[in-house]
Write a structure and sequence with these properties.
With 219 residues, this protein is an alpha+beta fold. It folds into two domains: 76 residues; 85 residues, C-type lysozyme inhibitor (Lipocalin). Helix content is 43%, strand content 25%. It has seven helices and eight strands. Strands 1-2-3-4-5-6-7-8 form an eight-stranded antiparallel barrel. A hairpin with a 5-residue loop joins strand 2 and strand 3. The protein is elongated and about 60 Å long. It starts with a helix and ends with a helix. 21% of the residues are buried.
Length: 219
């Protein structure tokens, strides 16, 4: 007898005995919730003390692993014609980095942050969530120095900035004013249509204005 039939039989039996139906509904929902908290990998094969064992024992981290698995599957479908094929290699590198969280003083926080940033990265790079843009910035009063940005409704929020054939993914950072995004070697700090943008390691920030605002100021 499968799980659904077992529940139905239990429902009929309990109803005949006069028990509240709500008890059966709670039982079924609880079973479904338990299944949702299982990570995407086989917890029976994890090693003692490993990061994967920590994930298996933590409901929140298990849910994040499932969410990443779904995002990765969606990204894989979009990357089927990607050349060169980098998604699988990047994911293997990410797993290695996540597993290095055993070195962290706060392993849970390290793993949680690792998942959230990777999920947001996949959602932004492969356009899996809603976005705003693109927006065009003219920098240093030079129309040829243009940076194009698209903002994504990820958690944490992200943007993808493009300058020529260079692309940078940036994450929203805490800021006292405006919106500040930080990438590997690039940053964008925007306030009321103006932005300070740093592009490249060791580079100085340049003042940039959104094209519509730049056009209005030039009149």
């Amino acid at each position: 007898m499968n799980a659904q039939c077992t529940h139905e039989y239990f429902f009929l039996s309990m109803t005949m005995l006069g028990f509240p139906v709500v008890l059966v509904s709670v039982f079924c929902l609880s079973s479904g919730a338990a299944l949702a908290d299982i990570p995407s990998f086989d917890c029976r094969k994890t090693k003692n003390g490993s990061i994967e064992e920590i994930i298996c024992k933590d409901e929140e981290l298990a849910k994040l692993d499932q969410k990443l698995s779904e995002a990765y599957a969606a990204a894989s479908r979009k990357a089927v014609n990607e050349h060169p094929p980098v998604l699988k290699a990047e994911q293997r590198g990410w797993v290695k980095g996540r597993n290095d969280c055993w070195k962290s003083e706060d392993q849970h926080k390290c793993v949680e942050d690792s998942y959230q940033l990777r999920i947001a990265e996949l959602q932004a790079r492969y356009r899996l969530v809603a976005s705003n843009g693109p927006f065009f910035y003219a920098c240093n009063s030079d129309s040829k120095y243009e940076i194009v940005t698209t903002f994504f409704q990820t958690d944490p929020p992200t943007l993808i900035a493009e300058r020529g054939d260079q692309v940078s993914l940036m994450y929203l950072q805490p800021s006292a004013s405006g919106s500040k995004y930080q990438g590997r070697n690039e940053s964008l700090w925007e306030h009321k249509g103006e932005a300070l943008i740093t592009w490249g390691y060791g580079s100085s920030a340049v003042r940039c204005i959104r094209k519509s605002e730049a056009h209005a100021q030039s009149r």
